[in-house]
From TrEMBL:
Family per record: Belongs to the oxygen-dependent FAD-linked oxidoreductase family.
Keywords: FAD, Flavoprotein, Oxidoreductase
Entry protein name: FAD-binding PCMH-type domain-containing protein
Cofactor: FAD
Occurrences of domain FAD-binding PCMH-type (ranges): 68-256
Pfam families per the UniProt record, alphabetical: FAD_binding_4
GO molecular function terms attached to this record: FAD binding; oxidoreductase activity
InterPro entries noted in UniProt: FAD-bd_PCMH, FAD-bd_PCMH-like_sf, FAD-bd_PCMH_sub1, FAD-bd_PCMH_sub2, FAD-linked_Oxidoreductases_BP, Oxid_FAD_bind_N, Oxy_OxRdtase_FAD_BS
């Protein structure tokens, strides 16, 4: 082989290596774009009773803490629990390669981005209020209770139950929070010393199962309580949404007092000013 042919062979090999490297780099760059396009198309193809928004979702990238800002790919406004189940199942079926995640958002009072997901799907739980009405039960039952949507605000529950002379046993001090949100975070307040936190005053839950930890299920809708699916019941109460999404709750009630004693001192030295 002549020197000239050796030079040509080396040049050819260099060109082949460079071409292969360029192709690999193109594939690496294009793969996320193809994956993103596939995820977007799959979400748009879902047939929900509610609807999905892909634009003007800035509200879902913030929370009360204002520390974390993660913009989602889409926000689901479910009309039914079936919508939530379908979304969770779809995310699971997409697999880890899609890097698609899902998070439930109530009234947006999380502090460190717990109800956010960058490039994922946010489920607006307050949309469920429109499809599920509160039902108060007090006749013919051992203990009074109310069935509520997880997207319902505690202030609305108070107004409804007071019509029957009843009220939940345990509260948070601020009532413009959703049921699902506080039950996922324990729900501790001034009444906890007497009745325990809110998670100790729940008879039953409806949950769309997740796929983390020991809880089986991939978007199933299950009823759980102390007697039925007890592991799931105890996992989701105070579980920060890691084992499933609470969609409905049965809250324990008690007789609401007609009058309460409330003392207010202007200062520690001035006890004469009492309301």
């Amino acid at each position: 082989m002549t020197c000239q042919s050796l030079v040509l062979t080396r040049k050819t090999n260099v060109l082949l290596v460079r071409s292969f490297t360029i192709l690999v780099l193109i594939c690496i760059v294009m793969k996320p774009e193809v994956c993103f396009s596939s995820v977007l198309s799959s979400l748009k193809a879902l047939h929900l009773q509610g609807y999905i928004t892909f634009e003007n979702n800035e509200f879902a990238s913030r929370d009360f803490g204002n520390q974390i800002h993660s913009h989602p790919l889409a926000v689901v406004h479910p009309k039914s629990v079936t919508d939530i189940s379908e979304i969770v199942t779809h995310v699971w079926q997409m697999g880890p390669a899609s890097e698609l995640t899902v998070a439930a958002r109530g009234h947006g009072h999380s502090l460190q981005g717990q109800a956010q997901t960058r490039g994922g799907v946010i489920i607006n739980m307050e949309s469920l209020q429109q499809d599920q009405e509160m039902q108060v039960y007090y006749n013919g039952v051992k203990f009074p209770y109310v069935d509520v949507s997880a997207g319902e605000l505690w202030i609305n529950i108070l107004h409804e139950t007071l019509r029957y002379g009843l009220a939940p046993k345990s509260w948070t001090d601020y009532l413009h929070l959703t049921v699902g949100g506080t039950l996922s975070n324990a729900g501790i307040s001034g009444q906890a010393f007497r009745h325990g936190p809110q998670i100790s005053n729940v008879h039953q839950l409806e949950v769309v199962t997740g796929f983390i930890g020991f809880i089986a299920g991939k978007g199933e809708v299950l009823i759980c309580s102390q007697e039925q699916n007890a592991d799931l019941f105890h996992a989701v109460l105070g579980g920060l949404g890691q084992f499933g999404i609470i969609t409905k709750a049965r809250i324990s009630l008690e007789r609401a007092p007609k009058m309460v004693n409330y003392k207010y001192h202007k200062s520690l030295k001035d006890k004469s000013v009492v309301l």
